[in-house]
Amino acid sequence: MLPSVVVLLMLLSSTCGEDPAIQLILTNKALSYGKAQAKDWIQQNLEHAHFPDISGNIDIGLGSVDYALTGITITKCDLPEPSVEFYPDITGFKTSIYGLSIALTGGWSTHYGLIHDSGSFDMAVLDVNVISAVELGKDPDGHLSVSSISCDAQVGDVDVQFHGGASWIFQPFVDFFKERISDEIQKRICPSVEEMIVKLESHLQAMNVSFDVNQVLSLDLHLTSLPVVASTSLNLGLKGEFYNIKTHSEPPFKLKSFTLPEQQGYMVSVGLSEFTLNSASYGYYSAGLLQADINDSMIPPYCPVHLNTTSVGRYIPQLPKLFPGLPMSLKVYAREVPVFSFQSDVVKLGLQGAVKAFAIQPNGTQTPLFTLNVDSDFSGKIWISDGRLKGSVKMDNVTLKLAASEVGTFSIDAMEKDVRLGVPVVVSLKVNKILDEGFVLPKIKQAQLVNSVLKVEEGFMAVFSDVELFLTDEGLN
């Protein structure tokens, strides 16, 4: 049961550590859902489970009987609702199951003196109680770790019915078998629970806490500190920083700590700092990828200005005289790292860019003409609707400044005016159309977010959500 709860946590990741850029909170509602899902999974899989053979010998007063119970399978399982709770004393979980009953069947064989016999049996294991506690921790590499702290199992009673062979001889001596069989079953329960936890620990250690998201960026998701367990929740802090794969350099800005509010009405809460997005922005910037070359074929036909010296001459009168009838190209690039800012219900983005213009000579040579610094500010809203991340954006301001000119000085007032009129149109027609359609929320291998709500707070955004699990044998092994 406990491994199942931890898998729920992972399908979604020193007491003092570095501040996390991503925070995860698992609530009591998640535990309630997880134990219900795990109960169904355990019920289904127990009914197909095979038990190890049980063998031994017993003195029945008339001599010693060697016995073996083989091919033991479960035919029915009555699994009561387990109790799962956060356990702050050990920074983990505590699970209790009371009154578990299992019906089994298999084959028996006995050796009593010169008598060798065999047949089948039906067994009922009644009123099994199991109490287990698991501690959560953090290994040196930042993986989530799990370890069994305690386990106690008690078997209430065992009833055995022998069939076939000379079973009528041994049936009266069932009481002699019951205690031994009960002890055998009881002593196997906790080692089986602990074996599951060891397997889960191996699975967690094999998971990547840093991985490449594309050819440019890697994402570091190691735990920044020990898990924090309260009576109603579990809180994990993750590094949440993107890096340029080649340089792995730190950005020139620091993470600001934030407090993610706990929402008991949802299974999980996820807090994402603006630092995470800005670290991705820095990764692309430091890789030299925030630039583009633009030629006239990329300008929409309906645009009143095209990339040639004649058309741009409306802003720079001397240009068509110096370079008559030549096509032009633009190199657009970021002068500084684009920076996101999360404010209450608003996401802001500041862009400090530049545009360097060239005239393309008949022989293909590009002659530099001028360079403009273009600084712009955008603001937008994001939300979750119908399982999609959606949004809208608008330009708040744009300014142009002549940074360099190879064609002499000229006024940029008219150009700046047209840019202020044209950019909002492009944003509305293209960017907002895409944002209105939205993006499907990411799915993890065995989990999907449902009933999700997104809120933008000062310095971070928070997603409060329920989770739908798709537990499989592979998912829990």
TrEMBL record:
Source superkingdom: Eukaryota
Keyword Disulfide bond in annotation: yes
Domain Lipid-binding serum glycoprotein C-terminal residue range list: 262-465
Residues spanning the signal sequence: 1-17
Stored Pfam families: LBP_BPI_CETP (PF01273), LBP_BPI_CETP_C (PF02886)
Subcellular location: Secreted
GO biological process: defense response to Gram-negative bacterium; innate immune response
Listed Gene3D superfamilies: Bactericidal permeability-increasing protein, domain 1, Bactericidal permeability-increasing protein, domain 2
Cystines in this chain: C151-C190
A cellular-component GO term for this protein: extracellular space
Location (main, coarse): secreted
Function: The cytotoxic action of BPI is limited to many species of Gram-negative bacteria; this specificity may be explained by a strong affinity of the very basic N-terminal half for the negatively charged lipopolysaccharides that are unique to the Gram-negative bacterial outer envelope.
UniProt note: domains: The N- and C-terminal barrels adopt an identical fold despite having only 13% of conserved residues.
Subunit structure: Monomer. Homodimer; disulfide-linked.
UniProt name for this protein: Bactericidal permeability-increasing protein
